[in-house]
Amino acid sequence: RLAAAAGTPTPFLHAQASAIPFYRRHGFHCAGEEFHEAGIPHRLMRLTQDSPSDSTPDDDPVLGRSEGVHQLASRDQVRAAAIAMARQARREIVLLSRDLEPELYDQPGFRDAIRKLAVSGPRLPIRILLQEPRIPVMTGHRLVELAGQLTSSILIRRVGDEFQDRFESLLIIDETGYILRRTAAEPGAIASFSHRSEAARLHTEFDRIWEHSDADSELRRLHL
């Protein structure tokens, strides 16, 4: 409760495998694969308002209606959820990523959803924060190219130094659905298509980081 009130990151811990049942009883859930620390098997565990289930979203999840918090175990599941969620955006898409992971965000379905909202939605409906903007610029990421074409609808900034480690990846759609990965140690992500209170809390964190972001020199060169 104190962490949520202060706007700090969600509490997490590295639990010894034998202690996982204890932490589960106190509201923590497993995130990511088992790893060894000091020669002992551990799992990353994170505290959330709702413990995510091991199930994936429905085959045709509906933003704002398909309830549940899900643990997405693979990149394929994260990509599918991101595309399904972005296609239903009507007001806003905010995205924080280290380098606009192309296997997730340089896919036709996701780019098409971005373009659709950019040309038909409200002014500046898409904001993107990058920790390492040079990489997608140098590799010709097509989402960066699209932002260069639609400058009044898509804005990209660099995450300020003090916030570089706040999130590994965060996608929020219409302050209703979200996909979250806190650390690089998590191969998958936590996702919900209908969790307005948590999406709003994460959106507040995103806005705070946005306020302390800036236009990177590489992005400035591209007039983004």
Summarize this structure as a short list of keywords or feature phrases:
seven-stranded mixed β-sheet, single chain, 9 helices, four-stranded antiparallel β-sheet, 11 strands, alpha+beta, globular, 224 residues
Write the SSE topology.
Layout: H1 2-6, E1 12-16, H2 20-25, E2 28-30, E3 35-37, E4 40-47, E5 70-72, H3 75-86, E6 93-97, H4 102-105, H5 108-120, E7 126-130, H6 134-138, H7 142-149, E8 154-158, E9 169-173, E10 177-181, E11 189-192, H8 196-211, H9 217-221
Helix pairs in contact: 3-5
Question: What's this entry about, in short?
Answer:
The chain has 224 residues and is α+β, with helices and mostly antiparallel strands.
Strand content: 15-25%
The main pleated sheet reads as: 7 strands, mixed
What is the overall number of helices? 9
Kindly state the mean pLDDT as a whole number? 86
Q: What class do helices, strands and sheet pairing give?
A: alpha+beta
Could you give the count of β-strands?
Answer: 11
Percent helix, as a range, is: 25-40%
* Strand neighbour order, sheet with most strands: 5-11-10-9-6-7-8
Distance between the termini: 38 Å
Give the helices and strands as they follow along the chain: HEHEEEEHEHHEHHEEEEHH
The Cα radius of gyration reads: 17 Å
Which stretches are low in confidence, meaning pLDDT under 50 for 5 or more residues running? none
Broad shape: globular
